[in-house]
Amino acid sequence: ILAQTGFHEKVSRLISKQNRKPVLKPNRPLTLRDAVANRKLKKGEATCVTEMSVLMACWKLNNFVDGLCSQEMESFYTCVDKAQSSMKNKSDQNILQGGRLPPKHATSLLKRYPNQTCEI
């Protein structure tokens, strides 16, 4: 009985005394939107850090002449290419495996199947 009276007190505080309508009014309509905020997913750990540091050390030793550090540049660029291809494959697998959808894919699906605004 005490729990019910506490509940009724809370409800009576939310209802205005004059009109018996709820005091709290939503500032937006209470429907789902047809788009998702375009937030970037978290980045993973940094890749190719050792190759980049070797390249920068070579540049510093050779007064930033690219021709003298061609081997280090080549190893850095191959590492970057491998990392980008692995990230692309990983993102494709996440979409197919049913993990979290990227915001672009979620928005495209929501636009394809929009929210009904009228009642049936």
UniProtKB/TrEMBL annotation:
GO biological process, one term: mitochondrial translation
GO molecular function per UniProt: RNA binding
CC terms in the record's Gene Ontology section: mitochondrial ribosome; nucleoplasm
Domain of life: Eukaryota
SUPFAM superfamilies (alphabetical): Cysteine alpha-hairpin motif (SSF47072)
PANTHER family per UniProt: CHCHD1, SMALL RIBOSOMAL SUBUNIT PROTEIN MS37
Name of the protein in its database record: Coiled-coil-helix-coiled-coil-helix domain containing 1
